[in-house]
Amino acid sequence: MEFFAPLSEHATEPAVKRVENVLTLLVSANTLAREQREKVRFYERSGKDWRREDGKSFRESLDTSTRTQRLLNDALRRYPTLPLAQGLVGKFEIVERPVTSSTGRWAPWERWAVGTLLNIAKKPGGLSLLRRCSECSHWFYANRPHQQFCGESCRRRHTAQDTAFKEKRAAYMREQYRPLLKELQERPLTVLKKTRQSKGTE
Fold first, then answer.
1. In 3-state terms, what secondary structure has residue 143?
2. Alpha carbon distance 141, 158 (integer Å)
3. 56-74 pLDDT tens trace
4. Does any domain span residue 54?
5. Which regions of the chain are under pLDDT 50?
6. What is the pLDDT of residue 57?
7. For the residues of 59-113, what is the DSSP string, one character each?
8. Is residue 156 part of a domain?
9. Which domain holds residue 100?
10. pTM, 2 dp
11. What is the pLDDT of residue 96?
12. Is 130 helix (H, G, I), strand (E, B) or coil?
């Protein structure tokens, strides 16, 4: 998505900071709610009451959710929505577009990015696909539910740091690559010797 590039390339711009704050709070609020639902389902399946079994930590989670939602509402007050009519050929609809008091170069992008985030938030499961890359920490929109990296280069870089991968690679280099390389380097000499020997016998 287009709004991810400014988050990493222009991170010091005030408008970009505000959008990243909204993004971070949206994802945090969504994650907390999902964890709470999973915990309640777990206790319901086991026939236990979560209030009795996990009361304190669950209350702490609810308190964190309340604080996160308050911060998110404070951040979103800057973007009241304006109902607008829009349509294409054979299509007409009323949409709500965020408005901001921001001015300058980044104001249109800020309005558009916040509107895009709010639209994603309305879709079931949409926010769970907004993530930080496990390697470079840049935001990205995941194409798959278990995707952890923004791209192939970050996935490879992360894998290369894994101890098991390093051991496997070292074994490959020692047992397969270096012997093959040595053989390939010696082969021209062997061919040359055979050629000289055959010329010497003629």
1. coil
2. 19
3. 777 888 899 999 999 999 9
4. yes
5. none
6. 79
7. HHHHHHHHHHHHHHHHHHTT--EEEEEEEETTEEEEEEEE-----STTHHHHHHH
8. no
9. 4-122
10. 0.70
11. 86
12. strand
